[in-house]
Specification:
Layout (H helix, E strand, L loop, with lengths): L7 E4 L2 E4 L10 H5 L2 E3 L2 E6 L2 E5 L1 H14 L8 H14 L5 E9 L13 E8 L9 H4 L1 E5 L20 H13 L4 E5 L5 E4 L3 E6 L2 E4 L10 H12 L4 E3 L4 H5 L3 E6 L3 E8 L2 E2 L7 H14 L10 E3 L1
Parallel strand pairs: 8-9, 8-15, 12-13
Antiparallel strand pairs: 1-2, 1-7, 3-6, 4-5, 4-6, 5-17, 6-7, 9-10, 11-12, 11-14, 14-15, 15-16
Helix pairs in contact: 2-3
This protein binds 4'-deoxy-4'-aminopyridoxal-5'-phosphate.
4'-deoxy-4'-aminopyridoxal-5'-phosphate binds next to helix 6 and strand 14.
Length: 306
């Protein structure tokens, strides 16, 4: 889906017209991907708006920056307020929120030295990330020929801009082959994650997922699903996942802010379970949306009402 222009954007502490938020082509970020970012969703609930896990996303932005020795020149509370303000300023009921902190224009040496650190928060409309109907019908994915970079090469727990060149190659290749998304193996040959999603599988009504030892981003949606699954009495095991674990699973699903909880029905030539979204996946998806819709008191601290 083409990026829909909003009218205003939060840029370095000010709200300015969308078209004015430009950078010079010789900025450090453009050449080396030297930035960190977040992806957050704001949902319309009963004619009002709720930003989901806003504090946790902003906290992860600071953690990502810290892993890259980048000092964001704003307080967390400034960015939390900035995200709220920019949603309201654009009159969005429901949208995707994209904060980014990046090195700007000063030097082109790889060491960013005195490059200014700029921060922007953009908002725009974003529907089902993996395509219309993905949440209800599921998706078909391929195990990529591109492996996930190892956490000893780049901090996979950071959401660093340049890291996404790895994801981009994998998803381009998957699309070229007619799949909806890619799953990347890690350097040890175990499952890492999707190009922008974590992965879970279910076998005999038990849930399994991996962690940072498999070179993944520790997704906030992943955390929601772990907590919701426990709440409803499911056992969840964190382990290294093999391709065989996935293709012989009863159910497989992706989690991510953009992808939400998306069933995976086919992996290359392998049909997962019945080939239709699994019952436990759909139950957890329902609980995820109920939580967002303020129908789970236990987790209402995940909601920022604006
Ligand atoms: N892994 C990668 C590589 C991602 O880009 C994302 C999306 N942020 C995720 C996992 C899921 O993370 P979250 O649930 O926090 O959106």
């Amino acid at each position: 889906m083409k990026l829909q222009k909003a009218t205003q954007i939060w840029y370095n502490g000010q709200i300015i017209p969308w078209d004015h938020a430009n950078i010079h082509v010789m900025s450090h970020i453009l050449h080396y991907g030297s930035g960190v970012f977040e992806g957050i969703r704001c949902y319309e609930v009963n004619d009002k708006s709720i930003i989901f896990r806003l504090d946790d996303h902003i906290q992860r932005l600071y953690n990502s920056a810290s892993l890259y020795n980048m000092k964001i020149p704003f307080n967390k509370s400034d960015l939390i307020q900035g995200a709220i303000d920019i949603v309201l300023k654009n009159n969005f009921r429901q949208c995707y929120i994209r904060p980014i902190a990046f090195y700007g224009y000063d030097t082109l040496g790889v060491n960013p030295k005195k490059c200014p650190i700029n921060v922007a928060i953009g908002v725009f409309d974003w529907g089902e990330y993996l395509g219309k109907g993905a949440l209800t019908n599921g998706v078909k994915v391929t195990i990529s020929k591109w492996k996930k970079f190892h956490y000893s090469s780049m901090p996979s727990t950071a959401k660093g801009c340049g890291q996404y060149m790895n994801s981009m190659l994998a998803v381009q290749d998957a699309k070229l082959k007619g799949f909806d998304e890619a799953i990347l193996l890690n350097q040890e040959g175990y499952i890492s994650e999707g190009s922008g999603q974590n992965i879970f599988y279910i076998k005999d009504e038990k849930l399994f997922t991996n962690d940072e030892n498999s070179s993944i981003l520790l997704g906030i949606t992943r955390d929601c699903i772990i907590k919701l699954a426990k709440e409803f009495g499911y056992s969840i095991t964190i382990k290294n996942i093999s391709t065989n674990d996935l293709v012989t699973a009863d159910e497989v699903f992706f989690t991510g802010t953009a992808s939400e909880v998306t069933p995976v029905c086919k992996i290359d030539d392998n049909i997962i379970g019945t080939g239709k979204p699994g019952g436990i996946t759909l139950f957890l998806q329902e609980q995820y949306f109920k939580t967002i819709n303020n129908q789970n008191k236990k987790f209402n601290n995940w909601l920022t009402h604006i």
